[in-house]
Amino acid sequence: MRVAVYPGSFDPITNGHLDIIRRASRLYDKVIVGVLNNASKNPVFSADERKEMIDSVTDDIKNVSCDVFSGLLVDFAKQNNASVIIKGLRTVTDFEYEFQMALLNKALDPEYETVFMMTDSKYSYISSSMVKEVAKYHGELDGFVPALIKEKIIKKF
Ligand code: PNS
């Protein structure tokens, strides 16, 4: 059984994240979305709210589940019997940061492979931070996040 973890802050999940989750679910037997519970990042949504949002928009993908984690990603992967860490790449800037994290994770535990998936070009400019910025000034969020998430963001802001 090939298990992959897809970690992130997901504050909130965007259409770009969802696209990576859907595509990864076709490549692996099981995909576990890992929501980082990191208070130092000052998230807008609590870890439980982020998990709940991910659960509701991935409900139709049977081999996807979601869990909150804190601590090291490699430990979360181990607890879930995963062998692969999935990361989405949008830009060259993403690459530099992700390259460093992949090497660090490999140094921490050589058992794990980080697999990079290219964003679909239509999502290449979407990020959770950008979504929050647009929401703050009451801009239109259609196309950036699923409808259900849009409602939650509007309520929050
Ligand atoms: O969506 P983000 O904020 O870019 O995700 C970052 C994340 C959660 C993948 C990264 O911060 C992470 O893996 N944190 C867990 C702590 C850890 O394992 N650190 C060492 C590798 S960077």
Helical content, roughly?
40-55%
The percent range for strand residues is: 15-25%
Q: Distance between termini?
A: 41 Å
Helix segment tally: 6
Main sheet summary: 5 strands, parallel
Order of helices and strands: EHEHEHEHEHH
Q: Name the structural class.
A: alpha/beta
The tally of beta strands, per DSSP, is 5
Instruction: Tell me the radius of gyration.
Output: 15 Å
What is bound: which ligands?
4'-phosphopantetheine
- What is the averaged pLDDT score? 97
- For the largest sheet, list the strands in their spatial order: 3-2-1-4-5
- Flag low-confidence runs: none
Q: Tell me, what's the shape? A: globular
Write a concise keyword list for the protein shown above.
single chain; 157 residues; alpha/beta; 5-stranded parallel β-sheet; 6 helices; 20% strand; binds 4'-phosphopantetheine
Description:
With 157 residues, this protein is of the alpha/beta class. The protein is built from six helices and five strands, in the order E-H-E-H-E-H-E-H-E-H-H. It has helices spanning 15-27, 47-57, 73-79, 92-108, 128-136, 147-156; strands at residues 3-8, 30-36, 64-69, 84-89, 113-118. The chain has a five-stranded parallel β-sheet with strand order 3-2-1-4-5, with helices on both faces. The protein is globular. The mean pLDDT is 97. It binds 4'-phosphopantetheine. Residues 7-9, 36, 72-73, 101, 104-105 line the site of 4'-phosphopantetheine.
